[in-house]
Amino acid sequence: MNHARTRSRSGGWLGLYSWLVFAFLYLPIVVLILYSFNGSGVGGFPPRDLTLSWYRMLFHDAAIWNSVLNSLIVAMVAVGLALAIGIPAALALDRADFPGKAIFRRLVLLPLILPGIITGLSLLMLCVFSGLQLSLVTIALGHGTALIAVATTEIFAGLQKFDRRQEEASLDLGANYWQTFWRITLPNLRLSIIGAALLIFTLSMDEIAVSFFLVGRENTLPLEIWSRLRRGMTPEINAVSTIIFVFSLFTIIIWYRIRTRGEAQQLATPIIQGEIA
Amino acid sequence: MYSRAYKSAVTLPPVAWVTLFLLCAYVILFAHSFWSVRDGQIVRDFTLGNYKQIASSPLYLQVLFRSMKIAGAVTLFALLLGYPVAYYLSFNSRHKNLLFQLVIVPLWVSYLVRAYAWKTILGSDGVLNTSLQFLHFTHEPVSALLYSPFAVVLTLTHIYTPFAFLPIFAALEHIPRNLIEASHDLGGTPLQTFWRVILPLSLPGVVAGATFAFVLSLGDFLAPILVGGPSGIMISNIVVSLFGAAYDWPLGAAISLCMLILVVGLLFATERLEKRFSYQ
Prior knowledge:
Chain A is mostly helical and 277 residues long. Chain A has 14 helices and no strands. Chain B starts with a helix and ends with a helix.
């Protein structure tokens, strides 16, 4: 149709511009990966003395691996917590009317919209106020609480596509609410739940603003990287970043396959759009 | 269809948790902003001193103003980079899904790592300077690249462009294609079609994307430390130092509250804008 005319005329310049933007987006990532193999440090051009020694060094770096372990534990607790609160929160927003519902909806989403520093230091003051010792536990509580927003939006979106008559049938056939929840509601929401879990996991692994304020003696991985960056740059950080990048890439691919199988919306748009209203 | 017991069971636990851990936390932030510090101790007596100090100190206002300028510049660049790409993907590209993923992937590289990568690129013995010298464009490293507001804007633009892109792309995808065909059939040129049909219909996405880019970069405190230097300090850096070595939590809380009010006010305004622009 006529539409094709626009395509051919404006497509060329626009296409070129788009590829330049892509180049801009990928330049740091390419540099990062390339220089993790660079024998002569993080700077200099062209990269020379290609080596795996930074990876070898990383492999024997106990502090890094300890922080990776800490991050994994924090992320898993955060996923559990955010889902345990986020699933009922989404059900409540979908099905119940209660006083303060509009405020509750906004409050849940606030950590996603506010700069992380505000949520981080608010939680720090809460911990100090209530005498909680700062540790990995407070970081996990902070991540879990801040990321309820992600669980709630993802699962709320899933509920919009869910046919309530299945629950009605289950209840009519004599199942109680508890059985219906476990056998009908949860299995139907499983794509949203897995998607939310992967997203929360990745966000928690990378979170720094909240962790920054709630950290005790044990570092998470981003905090460990942060403390090293302040001392100086070594390609060891490039190496650990490259490994994280490859892992996140796998996570996205898995997530994407799950979502496309579920004919869900495009990746991440419901979150980014934020459903602020 | 759902009993009262069911509704309470799904409502009470999340409401209780969110009240305890979020509402209380924000309320304590609010309370701190009216307290003060004497002899290294927080004194819990009501005072407006923190706000007076903010209003009368050129330092805080100047840094706040600079943060808004930096965030504004980041927003502008993120839109200038994000909108054409979103348009290209939505209307011109044959590999829409693949390219969409390509925009998303950088979002999943650790924030810290991307900021750090820019530091390695912009530094005086960094990748950019050494390649400029290697190609004989300059003989001495350009030192103005790193540790400047420019470096902060560049780094934050890189980080938040995908955030601006996503809602714009979603908005463009939701434009009914027959409206565009109608415009063509009624004799509209491609430019007229863009200006009078596509752009107005994509404005809610633009507003959402701009809000994300502005709010997220306004509160950033890591990129300024990594690549900003003294002239790139932003308002959150002041808050961080007040919560650290400077130890004045009440003043830090008051500055954060100003930021929070700014952000929430902006969100309300853009929410109304989005509603006005939306056609459904």
